[in-house]
Design goal:
single chain, alpha+beta, Heat Shock Protein 90, 2 domains, 7% strand, rod-shaped
């Protein structure tokens, strides 16, 4: 019987009051829908004709017409309750009901049905006491006025109560729908945020490792230019190939199809450690690693070796593999500063997202740095 506009949970265009901008069709329906049910005020108009004549009849009809207009306006302005429009209309409707009582007698109490609708719309869970008072007034007021010569009006009282209950259910459904839409919007927002985090993490892991390798190989090629031009050219060729591969990896990461291989990462780690002058001790086989953990361990090897080359100043680096763990140790100075930099932070998020655990810090023998990741039981 009305349409009260709570603010939408999404992000549609809004008016100066912060309410969603509705289409013309929606605005027309918000007027027509509550207006259709005003036909029941014909009973009040009939009461005016029955109990008055002359100018009092005209006054009663004017009150009924004004009640219709203000009710539709109140229903339509429900979204602006905080600015007082709705409540101004509400109390004007109460005043019109009071004016109509001596003109239409018990038939004027039909107006309470529409006041009950607005009460539920505006107060919802707190509307029960007000609606209860309306029901009692509709039932008992006619009997309390002897000049009306009528008894208890259970029919009008029942109509007020039933309509109030129906509107309570209707607005409950509307609020549930808005809650679902709000939850859906939150899911979309979190999904977008998670995707941004994934891309940022992947790009950091990809570019950090690749740029470190390119820097090391370019520096090596520069040193070899004068003493071994052929090897320097080979290193530059590898830099070019690595650059092309990195570009492809970045594109794959952005599109969500980035994958890494533990075998490839170990081979790359051997090459980049050799170029950096660090002795590599790598496992000869990866058969003991569970298939479900292979990709996770590949990311660990990539990030761990990148940190060794970039920060450790180590002479040796060892990668140890188990069926459910991977460990990278070196004899250098560690990564220094904040051990939870972007790379390790992103790696920790990646590990914890699958239920694993990561530990990083100075080795117990104080002879270097250790990074260890343990995967969950499959």
């Amino acid at each position: 019987m009305t349409c009260v506009n709570d603010q939408s949970a999404g992000e549609p265009p809004t008016d100066p009051y912060g309410n969603p901008v509705r289409s013309r069709r929606a605005r027309v329906m918000e007027i027509i829908f509550p207006g259709v049910f005003l036909i029941y005020l014909a009973q009040t108009a009939n009461g005016v004709v029955k109990h008055t004549d002359g100018w009092l009849t005209m006054l009663g009809m004017i009150v009924v017409g004004a009640y219709c207009v203000i009710y539709i306006y109140a229903a339509h302005s429900g979204g602006h309750q905080r600015y007082g429009r709705f409540w101004q209309c509400y109390w004007v409707l109460v005043a019109l009901l009071v004016i109509e009582l001596p003109l239409a007698h018990e038939d004027a109490l039909v107006m309470l049905v529409y006041l009950a609708v607005l009460t539920v719309a505006s107060m919802y869970t707190r509307s029960a006491p007000v609606v209860a008072v309306m029901v009692l007034v509709a039932a008992l007021l006619p009997k309390a006025i002897p000049s009306w010569h009528v008894g208890v009006q259970w029919g009008t009282a029942l109509a007020v109560g039933i309509v109030a209950l129906a509107m309570h259910g209707f607005f409950g459904i509307m609020r549930s729908k808005q809650a679902v839409e709000a939850a859906r919007g939150e899911v979309v927002r979190l999904a977008a945020e998670n995707e941004r985090s994934r891309i940022a993490r992947d790009l950091h892991d990809l570019l950090g490792h690749s740029l470190t390798t390119i820097t090391v190989k370019a520096a090596l090629a520069n040193r070899l230019t004068a003493i071994d031009p052929a090897r320097a050219a080979a290193e530059i060729a590898e830099v070019e190939e690595l650059t092309r591969r990195t570009l492809a990896d970045v594109r794959a990461a952005v599109s969500g199809y980035r994958d890494v291989s533990l075998g490839n990462e170990l081979a790359t780690a051997r090459e980049v450690l050799r170029a950096a002058g660090i002795t590599a001790q790598l496992p000869g086989a990866i058969d003991n690693v569970e298939t479900a953990q292979s990709q996770l361990f590949a990311w660990v090897v990539r990030e761990g070796v990148t940190n060794v080359v970039r920060h450790s100043r180590a002479q040796t680096c060892e990668v140890r593999l188990g069926d459910r763990f991977v460990e990278i140790v070196d004899d250098g100075m560690g990564i220094g500063g904040d051990s939870a930099g972007n790379g390790l932070r992103g790696l920790r998020e990646r590990v914890e997202s699958v239920g694993g655990s990561l530990s990083a810090g100075v080795r117990t023998d104080r002879r270097g740095w250790q990074l260890r990741v343990e995967a969950p039981v499959a």
